[in-house]
Amino acid sequence: MIAYFFFRFFDFLLKWMPWSALYGLSNFVYFILFRVLRYRVDLVRTHFSTCFPNSDEQWVNQMTKTYYHYLSDILLESIKALHIPASEIQDRYKLVGEDVLRRPELANRNVILVGSHYGNWEFMTRGLPYLIPHEPAGVYRPLSNKRIEAYMAKHRSKDGMWLVPTEKSKPAWTEDRGKPVAYALLADQNPSNPRKSYWIEFLNRETGFTPGAEVYAKRFDYPVVLMLMNRVKRGHYEVSFELLEMNPKETEFGEIMQKYVGALEKRIQNDPPYWLWSHRRWKHKMPEDFTLMKSIK
């Protein structure tokens, strides 16, 4: 109960706060997280230095500071974005490149969108319905606080996003919604079971990936489309789509995820700070009897 009222207080505050004031507050949040609490700073520094082994200490320090500014921004942006008008979210979350989902071979089929924790993924829940011809379905893990989850779900879905909790997703994959569905998954999450994971070399590390996106793509033969975000500036993001696989049933074991990992790695290497580096992404180790796969670029 206390957490819910604390959340609603800041939700109300940010709802009416101008963007300029929000980023002033974000600078203060950065100071608290990075300078005072030192929230996982050593972990983030270790991630940067390990994933970019040719980098020097000055670069690691700069990337770490930039990351914490970004983290502070998205914490506040994500709450603010729940309340801004539809016209504003469309101005702040734009499609660049080819509108892949409008291709004739995809426009009338269910597809799987594989995204990541890069940029601001909360903007996706409100912005995606305005960008694609399909009904977007967000397959996700609900928050543990039921009051906050219910409040967030109400606002995340108000533009047309169909929210599908992971534990209730089985019937949703074949449900007739009256129009094609684009099932959106953030496929870079840390797997809960190392032995039920795909182990792929990612950012110079043995990394486990949940197999869900590939498993469902092959089971239902849904084409897989890569969804990548780019941070243009504070509060403004671009999204691009790229067809990863048209015929999933014809692919080899792990091939779809290898392509996904290769594309995500390239995006992170091009602009490193804007991925979720403070997550304990590598807390699991690859089982000794597993073989490490290579990404496909």
Query: How many whole angstroms does the radius of gyration measure?
Result: 19 Å
- Rounded to the nearest angstrom, the distance between the terminal CA atoms is 47 Å
Total number of beta strands:
9
* Count of discrete alpha- or pi-helical segments spanning 4 or more residues: 10
Largest sheet: 7 strands, mixed
Secondary structural class: alpha/beta
Q: Largest beta sheet: what is the strand line-up?
A: 1-9-8-2-5-3-4
General form: globular
Provide the residue-averaged pLDDT.
96
Order of helices and strands: HHHHHEHEHEHEEEEHEEH
Helical residues, percent: 40-55%
Unreliable segments (pLDDT under 50, ≥5 consecutive)? none
**What number of structural domains do the residues give?**
1
Q: Note the beta-strand portion.
A: 15-25%
Structural descriptors:
7-stranded mixed sheet, two-stranded antiparallel sheet, 297 residues, 41% helix
Outline the fold blueprint:
Elements: H1 2-16, H2 19-36, H3 41-51, H4 57-80, H5 86-92, E1 93-95, H6 104-107, E2 111-115, H7 121-127, E3 135-140, H8 146-156, E4 162-165, E5 181-186, E6 198-202, E7 205-209, H9 212-220, E8 224-233, E9 236-245, H10 255-270
Parallel strand pairs: 1-9, 2-5, 2-8, 3-4, 3-5
Antiparallel strand pairs: 6-7, 8-9
Helix pairs in contact: 2-4, 3-4
